[in-house]
Amino acid sequence: GEALAVSARVAPLGSRLVLLLVEDLTEARRIEAVRRDFVANVSHELKTPVGALSLLSEAVMGASDDPEAVERFAGRMQIEATRLTSLVQELIDLSRVQNDDPLEGAEPVRVDELVAEAIDRCRHQAGSKQITMAAGGTADLHVWGHRGQLAAALGNLVENAVNYSPARTRVGIAARRVNAPGGDLIEVAVTDQGIGISDKDKERIFERFYRVDPARSRATGGTGLGLAIVKHVAASHGGEVTVWSSAGQGSTFTLRLPEAGAARARAHAPQHSA
Ligand code: ADP
């Protein structure tokens, strides 16, 4: 309606200009809608654990003469509080990767260190499910970027691989250098033998708060923000993240990032005066 009214008003300026204006309006409106949806989603996601905490605290007060019940309710309060904490932490991470220029603090980052850190982060969970993690090809590879953001991105991919896999399966992390027209890239592929992702869901999993199975995601402490963070980090570093998956057979998430070539590494090295 509004866009049409504007186009009618500026029609004498020529149809090309009108088209541009209408496209601009549509884009501005789309961005505004995305922002509104995000705020609505955040509110909803925060309300769930806060609501549960409020009910549970009432239950604790009503059960003061039953120590076992108090303990049970307190345990559930702890779970909800943990969920709230990780949601807030992921929101902070997301806003950081969206607002900070990753290339401001960029440096050559060793791929073997990033991979070791990501594995460490999930060691406990993988151990309890008897999932084996194996990494290969990482020696002597360096990517160019913001260490903390890169660690968060790879950590999220490995964490998901463990979360969405059954017990006694394998998670593999393979790195290699690939030639590309604009300079070599480092490819890090995280492969699992988990539940997989359907074609329909593949297009949406990188959206904020999108989950294939919200109940399962919540049960494993998921927030629905992890892949949005990964996608943003990849793009802002001049790279990309892609997914290959076959439902029921597993998934491979591939992160491609610019290599920290010799020239960049030298430029960054501390200067020694003669
Ligand atoms: P979450 O916190 O729910 O894991 P993510 O943004 O990391 O949020 O992932 C979004 C959704 O994509 C998940 O809820 C899950 O349904 C799906 N997903 C992500 N990684 C995998 C994987 N390795 N295997 C199967 N499904 C996955």
TrEMBL record:
- How would you describe this protein's topology in the membrane? Multi-pass membrane protein
Which residue intervals define the domain Histidine kinase in the entry? Answer: 41-261
Question: Per UniProt, what is one GO molecular function of this protein?
Answer: phosphorelay sensor kinase activity
Q: Which domain of life is it from?
A: Bacteria
Give the Enzyme Commission number: 2.7.13.3
Its chief place of residence is membrane
Q: What class of enzyme is it?
A: transferase
Keywords linked to the UniProt accession:
ATP-binding, Cell membrane, Kinase, Membrane, Nucleotide-binding, Phosphoprotein, Transferase, Transmembrane, Transmembrane helix, Two-component regulatory system
Q: Quick check: keyword Membrane in the entry? A: yes
Please give the GO cellular component terms listed in this UniProt entry. plasma membrane
Q: Name one GO biological process term.
A: cellular response to phosphate starvation
Describe the reaction catalysed, as an equation.
ATP + protein L-histidine = ADP + protein N-phospho-L-histidine
Compartments reported by the entry:
Cell membrane
What protein am I looking at?
A: Sensor-like histidine kinase SenX3
Q: Lineage, please?
A: Bacteria, Bacillati, Actinomycetota, Actinomycetes, Kitasatosporales
Q: Which part of the full protein is shown?
A: 122 to 395 of 428
